Amino acid sequence: MTLEDLLAREAIRDTMAKYNTAGDRLRIDDFVSCFTEDAVMESEHVPAERLFRYEGRAAIRAWQERWLAGEGGTHGATFVRHHLSTSKIDLAGPDSARARTYWVAWTDIGPDHAGYYLDTFRKVDGEWLIAHRRVRMDWEAEASLFRAAVPNSKA
Fold first, then answer.
1. Domain harbouring 51, CATH code
2. Does residue 30 sit in helix, strand or coil?
3. Which DSSP helix (H) or strand (E) runs through 106?
4. Cβ 97 vs Cβ 1: under 8 Å
5. What pTM was computed for the model?
6. Which CDD domains match (predicted)?
């Protein structure tokens, strides 16, 4: 492993942390800046009514703006905190990488939902950005605040 490899992995971890921090705080500009212009963000392994797919920064921004507006009761919790744990990052080349990262989301009522991200990263103008994020959910609480939030924030 080279110093350049270590720096790339740390930059990717920083993008992941920025994504979660910005998302939890509904800081839309910071959230959207984690993605390439042509990024895809989609869910997998969830009930059909909660499947989503957003293509491009504009679509991802519009989705976050609906969350911020609270459309459909999308953010009734006092707080939401996504915590990242194990992250396996594989550099595929000087400007591309793949990652699998486990996460769990907590709210003021306790653990809410958990799963993992399957990501493709691309280095653009010196920044490691998410080119494709697949969000997979493994578990959710019976009273998860996000059961209604995701379908209600769709376009």
1. 3.10.450.50
2. helix
3. strand 96-107
4. no
5. 0.92
6. NTF2_like
155 pairs with which residues across the strands? none
Check the CA dihedral 78-112-81-117 and report its sign.
negative
Q: 45: helix, coil or strand? A: coil
The mean per-residue pLDDT over the stretch 7-26 comes to: 96
What is the structure's pLDDT at 11? 98
| Residue 139 domain boundaries | 3-152
Residue type, 77: A
What is the distance between the alpha carbons of residues 113 and 110, in angstroms, rounded to a whole number? 10
Total domains present in the chain: 1
The total number of residues written for the chain in this structure? 155
User: Virtual CA dihedral for 19, 20, 21, 24, nearest 10 degrees?
Assistant: 120
- Average pLDDT of the residues of the chain: 91
